[in-house]
Design goal:
Chain C: This is Dipeptide ABC transporter ATP-binding protein. The complex is a heterotrimer of chains A (352), B (361) and C (581). Chain A is mainly α. Chain A is built from 14 helices and 2 strands, in the order ααααββαααααααααα. Chain A has a domain at 120-307: Orthogonal Bundle (MetI-like fold). In chain A, helix 3 packs across helix 5 and helix 9 runs antiparallel to helix 10. Mean pLDDT of chain C is 85; it is low at 1-8 and 275-301. With 581 residues, chain C is an alpha/beta fold. The radius of gyration of chain C is 26 Å and the shape is globular. The chains are: A mainly alpha (352), B mainly alpha (361), C alpha/beta (581). Chains in contact: A-B, A-C, B-C.
Chain lengths: 352, 361, 581
């Protein structure tokens, strides 16, 4: 063995004592198969597999919809008229307007399609920024401890216990609520949601870092005299972030719900700057009592579907990560085959 | 608070002689109570500075309507042109005396707003909790017991659906169905005008309409209040029930797989009793902790529900003030809600302490 | 007394015929038990022995029909005339507890933390006698608690599990079986989680149950000493197969199967275990060692050289935090470790042995007295000043599964000390060094590329040793390095440890709860009890003529893998315990 230190495990050598059962199987896997989602799909069985695949399909649809919104949507999100003149307000679904038009005279179908863009953008920005900040703070705070840690924990706990929607409201006021409109509406919403999620990532990563700090493999690095930055980077980081994909999905769905709630409360994005489902629902509030159902139903269903897709993926990943909750294939072999195997096994044992 | 020192080897002495030390519990309650203070302080400070970084509330609400001079005069009169740190200490001082400020738009004491509308929100949250507990806990038990079989599959999908649906969308659907398609229930407000008038005459009102109706002995009023509460309570309650169901299911699966349940099973205890006694009670500790947090968080859901059903509570009021850009009121209500959340979590911790013998003794 | 009963005349209480169990796991299907057949008579103690993965626990669980859903079971289990595997839920409930009861390995997890122990004992009674009144339930539960030796049972009825010690919790679990009048007790490693002195008491209790109530016991264990102490008949399992069944004396005297022989040979034995001298303290000089002890140098190597570690009145206190009392783990301990010698620290849980090892390596802060490591004062030490000395200390941890970073290959883990302290050597030289180290611990060179989860426990512990000695340390601290391993694997790792020590001549602090293991390896032994060093000296001194009662009790409580000798030792241990009360 004189090759460079390998990054991926290679297959077990032909010689040498047998490793743990199952180790050989895992060792033979390609790195692609060890990626979170891919590994989960391969592991899943029955209902868990159905939930995971269903969620993944929905997520893929949403992403495609966001990507190709200009091709799918017949009109722009702020478009109120075309060559035939104004769309008219509160028009029932028709051939020209599949899902009708809103009280403001927009095409419902187009706005729902364009809304996926806003949703995906907010998820990506909010979750990514909060992830980076949360992970860095959590690692440093958890491993080093001391005063910084204590202050951060108290602050994070206080924010965590606070209804996230209220905090997001405050943040939106801060960012765009003064008279200025420095940052765009979508970005403002994304940043507000970021602030809400930072404490969540911080808490999870910090708890993991604190747990790992007492693990023998970290202590053995300490005994050797490995420096703190090296311990954090080499030993804590990879192991502390194993739950991140899970929180990512759970937070993504919460981000959508928070965005919709902000829009519903009137913190939304102006209809002329982007399409946002929560804002449209707010405008549909008065329609419902007069029996106009299409302005509320479709944006609402879009929210439900998006959150459903992401949550299904997150939930089944959660189950698969937890050995207590994971389903396994039942052994399916006839009594005879087993007896056969048992007999050969026994003779082998006797020969040994 | 979380910086505990790990002790690798603990003395396994004979019998730990620590039966019933009430001082231990009292001490625990005191410590937990004192921990409310930094939480509330951090949140009020945070909210104060965040809200004031971008400008003063008068400019925010009256910006376009007054001339520059009038605006400057009003800002000066209210003291908003002084250094922020001075205003902060003054604000904190006022908070300590129970003064949460005066709204800009309708010149109300924020505390008065809270007193008038807080009980409406409380009533809504209580009604929705009845729905949440009645649906979430038994179905959570069923899902855990029939884990990975069809009842579990159905219940889990429903729970995820409940989580995925924004409360205002459920609200809108309920309004559509019961207001238009099959109009059997009221879809807005807390009571009919007649009932409102009747209850307005109550001496020393609690503003909890159901309680007030019962106090004056009007069954028709009580019935009317309940009819109005059905849809909002279902909308908010179902969302919370979904969370409760998942919570009960996960924790019960954990304790059902534990050695002590296995041990009880090995002594012939029935499966029903294993779920409802042996597994349920230990699972209750994490369940209650998270539920407490969830109840606090359902205040946010209440804001949305009240807006949807025109339920004249704190949330509806908050929505109105947001529309009016009255940030003194928004700040006051938000800070008040922070206090309520902190106190709720404190109470939950005390309940847990009474359930968990390891904390009690 | 463990008279071997003539069980043949009686109708068997339990018959297992062709039991076959398969599990589905993440790693595919695992055949846990292969067509196993065995019977147990009333009043008989059958020990099922085997190492991890032998299927002994699965067999135990199938007796009560307690296998998880992932198991596919074939064959027949007949308990007191009823078939267990084909029984419906109601019939299963009836037989569980009254026909056979189970005692679990970890008493603290077998008791529900949020109910009183009395309620839990009564719960079993309630399940089988729904008509019993509250008073009657209580009376019967208290009676059972008294029978298993819980003092003040009437008052303790209302206590919660966390208010009892580990041994008492196990007594309560046994009381649950007793209260239901179970004719058969299935005890799955009932003493593995307990200290050796407590283990002796629990084994006595189980024996009394058998003698007084004619209760049959199926004892699942990996500990041959426990087998010798309690069993009438022994069944040896290996990888799901029953390889040998024999009476206990026959088995120990003349094991027939190859595996049984190797298992017995692997058990560490107390070399200086002359029980007579321990009963009559310090009358005569210790007699010659019963068995050939490892060739330890009579005198520690280079006695004139300055000691590497000197502890004088060492105190280690864990601060209690908010509202809790400080916890003194170590109080006033003095000892030294000289170059090239192996110093063994032995003690039960809570004795502070691990804490001392961690303090020497700078993982735990020494708080009082003096602890000098390479002449560096560890009380109030600063990491910066100590870091240069770290390369002179190696450390081997207890849990081989947790002591390697799962994301780094074994080679990277072993090379890490080199990367940190010897930045001068090239990557190629480092790899060569890793190869040498792997060779030294008898692992193939290509293991450098493997990941920790691909190695077995014993292999990981070898790799851990390789990492510990990678910088040619002068001192190696080994904290229970073999207690997580099976006995045959342990024997090989201990051999390796001794061999490496003789080859590289480092000094070592060897920490263990197992007196026999410590005696096997150490030049000198220190006995710790609740943070105090009771005595210290060479193996023959400490074990041959112990000065302290606790040491005597510790020695006498350790069951030896020899039924005849163990019967004699048991009496001694009982007397010592009686004297201690």
């Amino acid at each position: 063995m004189s090759t460079a230190a390998p990054v991926q495990p290679t297959g077990p050598g032909a010689a040498g004592p047998a490793p743990l059962p199952g180790a050989a199987k895992r060792a033979g896997e390609s790195p692609l198969r060890r990626l979170p989602i891919v590994r989960h799909v391969r592991q899943a069985v029955g209902l868990q597999r159905g939930m995971l695949l269903g969620g993944l399909v929905i997520c893929a649809l949403i992403l495609l919809c966001a990507l190709f919104a200009p091709l799918i949507a017949p009109y722009g999100f702020a478009q109120m008229n075309d060559a035939n003149g104004d769309f008219g307000t509160q028009q029932a679904p028709s051939a020209a307007h599949l899902w009708g038009t809103t009280v403001g005279g927009f095409d419902v179908f187009s706005r729902v399609v364009w809304g996926t863009r806003t949703a995906v953008f907010v998820i990506v920005v909010a979750v990514t920024i909060s992830l980076i900040i949360g992970v860095v703070l959590g690692l440093v705070s958890g491993y080093l401890g001391g005063w910084l840690d204590r202050i951060l924990v108290v602050v994070a706990d206080a924010i965590y216990a606070f209804p996230s929607l209220l905090l997001a409201i405050v943040m939106t006021i801060v960012i765009s609520g003064g008279q200025s409109k420095v940052v765009g509406g979508v970005m403002a919403a994304a940043i507000s949601i970021t602030v809400v999620f930072v404490p969540q990532y911080f808490r999870v990563v910090r708890a993991e870092a604190v747990r790992l700090k007492a693990e023998p493999f970290v202590e053995s690095a300490q005994v050797i005299g490995v420096s703190k930055p090296r311990i954090i980077a080499r030993h804590i980081y990879r192991n502390a972030t194993r739950n991140i994909p899970l929180i990512f999905t759970l937070n993504a769905s919460e981000a959508i719900l928070t965005l919709a709630a902000l829009g519903f409360l009137g913190f939304g994005i102006e209809p002329t700057s982007a399409a946002e489902w929560g804002f449209d629902l707010n405008k549909a509030l008065s329609d419902v009592t007069s029996g106009i159902w299409w302005t509320a139903l479709f944006p609402g269903l879009a929210i439900v579907l998006t959150v459903l897709g992401i949550t299904l993926v997150g939930e089944s990943m959660n189950d698969l990560n937890d050995p207590r909750l994971r389903l396994r294939k039942k052994p399916r072999r006839s009594r005879r085959a087993r007896a056969q195997r048992a007999r050969t096994g026994r003779t082998a044992a006797k020969e040994a | 608070m979380t910086a505990s020192v790990e002790v690798p080897e603990l003395a396994a002495g004979p019998v730990k002689k620590s039966p019933r030390s009430p001082s231990g519990l009292g001490r625990y309650i005191l410590v937990r109570f004192l921990l409310i203070i930094p939480t509330v302080w951090i949140l009020t400070t945070l909210v104060f500075f965040l809200m004031r970084i971008t400008g003063d509330p008068i400019t925010a609400s009256q910006g376009g309507r007054l001339t520059q001079d009038q605006l400057a005069q009003r800002v000066h009169d209210a003291g908003y042109d002084r250094p922020l740190i001075v205003q902060y200490f003054e604000y904190m001082g006022r908070l300590l005396t129970g003064d949460f400020g005066t709204t800009v738009s309708d010149h109300q004491q924020v505390t008065k707003v809270l007193a008038d509308y807080g009980s409406a929100t409380l009533e809504l949250v209580l009604f929705s909790l009845v729905v949440a507990f009645a649906v979430g806990i038994p179905f959570g038990m069923v899902a855990a017991k029939f884990r990975d079989r069809w009842p579990d599959a159905v219940l889990r999908i429903l729970a995820i659906l409940a989580y995925a649906t924004p409360v205002f969308f459920i609200g809108l659907l309920l309004k559509l169905v019961f207001g238009i398609l099959w109009p059997i229930l009221p879809v807005a407000g807390r009571a009919n005008t007649a009932t409102e008038l009747l209850l307005g005459g109550v001496i020393n009102p609690t503003h909890l309409y159901l309680l007030d109706s019962l106090r004056i002995g009007s069954m028709s009023a009580a019935g009317d209040v309940l009819r109005h509460a059905v849809l909002p309570a279902i909308a908010l309650g179902l969302i919370t029930a979904g969370t409760f169901l998942r919570l009960v299911r996960t924790n019960l699966i954990g304790t059902l797989g534990s050695q002590y349940v296995e041990s009880a099973r090995s002594r012939g205890v029935s499966e029903f009793r294993l779920v409802t006694k042996h597994a349920y009670r230990p699972a209750l500790i994490p369940i209650i902790t998270v539920m407490g947090m969830q109840i606090a968080l359902s205040l946010a859901g209440a804001v949305l529900t009240e807006t949807t059903f025109e339920w004249k509570g704190l949330g509806f009021q908050l929505y109105q003030y947001i529309q009016a850009r009255d940030f003194v009121a928004v700040q006051g209500i938000v800070v008040m809600l922070a206090v309520i959340v902190a106190v709720t979590n404190f109470i939950v911790d005390i309940i847990v302490a009474f359930i968990d013998p390891r904390v009690r003794y | 007394m463990a008279e071997e009963k003539s069980a043949a005349q009686q109708a068997p209480l339990l018959t297992i015929d062709d039991l076959d169990v398969t599990f589905s796991t993440d790693a595919g299907e695992v055949h846990a038990v292969n067509d196993l057949s065995i019977a147990v008579s009333p009043g008989e103690v059958l020990a099922i022995v085997g190492e991890s993965g032998s299927g002994k626990s699965v067999t135990a669980r199938s007796i009560l029909g307690l296998l998880p859903d992932t198991a596919v079971v074939d064959g027949a289990v007949v308990l007191a005339g009823g078939s267990v595997l084909t029984a419906g839920p109601a019939a299963l409930r009836r037989l569980r507890g009254s026909d056979a009861a189970m005692v679990f390995q970890e008493p603290s997890t077998a008791l529900n933390p949020v109910y009183t122990v009395g309620w839990q004992i009564a719960e079993g009674l309630r399940a089988h006698n729904p008509k019993l009144g509250r008073k009657e339930l209580r009376a019967r539960a208290v009676e059972a608690m008294e029978k298993v030796g819980i003092p003040d049972a009437a008052e303790r009825y209302d206590y919660y599990p966390h208010q009892f010690s580990g041994g008492q919790k196990q007594r309560i679990v046994i009381a649950m079986a007793l209260a239901l009048g179970a004719k058969l007790i299935v005890a799955d490693e009932p003493t593995t989680a307990l200290d050796v002195t407590v283990q002796a008491e629990i084994l006595d209790l189980l024996r009394e149950l058998r003698d007084d109530f004619d209760t049959a016991i199926v004892l699942i264990t990996h500990n041959m000493g426990v087998v010798a102490d309690l069993a009438d008949r022994v069944a040896v399992m290996y990888r799901g197969d029953l390889v040998e069944t024999a009476g206990v004396r026959d088995l120990f005297a003349s094991p027939r199967h190859e595996y049984t022989r190797s298992l017995l040979a692997a058990v560490p034995r107390l070399a200086s275990a002359d029980i007579a001298s321990t009963t009559a303290p310090a009358t005569t000089a210790p007699e010659a060692r019963v068995q050939t002890a490892p060739e330890a140098p009579a005198e520690p190597a280079r006695p004139d050289a300055a000691p590497l570690v000197v502890a004088e009145g060492l105190e280690i206190v864990y601060p209690g935090g908010f509202g809790k009392k400080d916890f003194q783990a170590v109080g006033g301990v003095s000892f030294d470790i000289r170059p090239g010698e192996v110093y063994g620290l032995v003690g039960e849980s809570g004795s502070g042995k691990t804490t001392i090892g961690r303090a020497i390596a700078g993982l735990t802060r020494a708080t009082g007295g003096s602890l000098r490591v390479f002449d560096h004062e560890m009380v109030g030490f600063k990491e910066r000043g100590f870091r240069p000395l770290r390369k002179r200390i190696g450390f081997v941890f207890q849990d081989p599964a947790a002591s390697f970073n799962p994301h780094l290959s074994i080679g990277e883990c072993i090379a890490e000390p080199l990367a940190v302290h010897r930045a001068d050597i090239s990557a190629a030289d480092r790899r060569r060094k890793v190869d040498e180290l792997l060779d030294a611990v008898q692992l193939p060179g290509d293991y450098a590329a493997r990941y920790p989860h691909e190695l077995s426990g014993g292999q990981r512990q070898r790799a851990s040793l390789a990492r510990g000695i990678s910088l040619d340390p002068e001192l190696l601290v080994a904290d229970e390095p073999t207690s997580a391993l099976d006995v045959s694997v342990q024997a090989r790792v201990l051999d390796l440890f001794r061999e490496l020590q003789e080859r590289f001549h480092y000094a070592a602090l060897f920490i263990s709860h197992d007196l026999a293991v410590v005696d096997m390896l150490s030049d000198r032994i220190g006995v710790l009890y609740r943070g105090e060093l009771l005595e210290s000296g060479t193996g023959p001194q400490v074990l041959g003529s112990p000065r302290h009662d606790y040491t005597r009790r510790l020695i006498a409580s350790l069951p030896v893998p020899d039924p005849v000798e163990q019967a004699a030792r048991r009496e001694v241990a009982r007397e010592l315990r009686a004297g201690a009360r």
